[in-house]
Amino acid sequence: MNTLSIIEKLKTEQNASREELVFLLENITDSEREELRRAAQEKSLKIFGGRVYIRGLIEISSYCKNDCLYCGLRRSNKNAVRYRLTKEQILSCCEQGHALGFRTFVLQGGEDGYFTDEVMCDIVSEIRRRYPDCAITLSLGERSEQSLQRLFDSGADRYLLRHETADENHYARLHPDIMSGARRKGLLCTLKKIGYQTGAGFMVGSPYQTIENLADDLLFVKELSPQMCGIGPFIPHKDTVFRDFAQGSPELTLTLLSVLRLMNPRVLLPATTALGTIHPKGRELGILHGANVVMPNLSPREHRKDYAIYDNKICTGDEAAECIRCLSGKLNAIGYQIVTDRGDYKSE
Ligand code: SAH
Question: What is the C-alpha separation between 106 and 224, in angstroms, rounded?
Fold first, then answer.
């Protein structure tokens, strides 16, 4: 086995075996990383041109009934400041976002019991009514199939639910006993079946993660073939059990972005805020490694800092307009352009 032939195989066959992926991730040299990056960038340019899609992220609630060991919003974090947005606040974020050119709104939050199907369907259908030209993405954690179907019927188009780690034993070390990796992965299939454009994804460098785990994540994504895949480095939060664990590496995250692009050429792949948080040029580098989406924050400024899933999150002080100007400048500087388009998944 050698790394260059594995990179070649990823380019031509869009696949590799578990052993090959492990070998590649363990042995890749700097010059091979550059070769991999170039191939992934080329692939993404061929499919998307220099066009980067934007998604307006609206963080609707910092309440959560779950207790994921890595997340700052976990129920047992007594220091977390909890807030939830009203329907009016959410609609006003959409209004601002629409004026700034956003055609996708991502409503993300902790698993907050306040947002029942009734409450949530009312919000989704109102956004759908006001903005028929926009995509509505939900990222509200695990809900029943019936609930996901009702939200879809109310006008939601897409759902982001990272699988976090494909290995169920590893999943169990990151979550309390009542949560299950098998259930989470099953829900991803349910989402696809309902007709959502579905987003999976995983953290890079989460506690106890092995290179084999990452290979399994890549193979899981390949098999599921989701329309979107969000990956970002794990970043410790000071009020969680994992406060003393190291953060994920930017280099490994970038390598994985490139491998994902080669294995899943058309997948919508964000250069995440977490990547931008651990590296000053993280998001630009993400784009140069094959990503094609950025997700600026549209949440009301007064609540930004309280949606603290990890420490030192960037862009918590800026107005949405400022964020988009800044990001747009950064992307122009590397030869890319933000486009105001729904940016749907295209199968051909
Ligand atoms: N409650 C929703 C949204 C979670 S926040 C859900 O369960 O899907 C979105 C993502 O942030 C999570 O899926 C997780 O992958 C990531 N995340 C959470 N804590 C993190 C941390 N400490 N470092 C990096 N990413 C984190």
Answer: 22
Residue type, 221: V
- Angle formed at CA 16 by CA 15 and CA 19, multiple of 5 degrees: 160
Q: How far apart are CA 157 and CA 294, in angstroms?
A: 18
**Angstrom distance (rounded) from CA 11 to CA 219:** 16
| Tokens representing residue 342 in the block | 């729904």
CA 32 to ligand 1 centroid distance, Å: 30
Phi, then psi, of 288 in degrees rounded to 5: -70, -15
Query: Tens of pLDDT along 18-35?
Result: 999 999 999 999 999 999
pLDDT of res. 294: 97
Give 296-331 pLDDT, tens digit per residue: 999 999 999 999 999 999 999 888 899 899 999 999
d(CA 37, CA 33) in angstroms, rounded, equals 6
Residue 229's beta-bridge partner residues?
A: 200
Domains along the sequence of the chain with CATH:
3-338 (3.20.20.70)
Q: Which atom of ligand 1 is closest in space to residue 201's alpha carbon? A: 15
> What does the pLDDT read at residue 348?
79
Give the mutation target among 71, 202, 242 for probing the ligand 1 site: most ligand atoms within 8 A of CB: 71
Q: Considering only CA atoms, which residue is closest to atom 25 of ligand 1?
A: 234
CA 346: distance to chain centroid? 18
Rg of the Cα atoms in the chain: 19
Per-residue model confidence (pLDDT) at position 266? 98
The first and second tokens of residue 191, run together, are: 């989402």
In the chain the beta strands, taken as DSSP E runs, fall at: 51-54, 56-61, 104-109, 135-139, 158-160, 197-204, 228-233, 293-294, 337-339
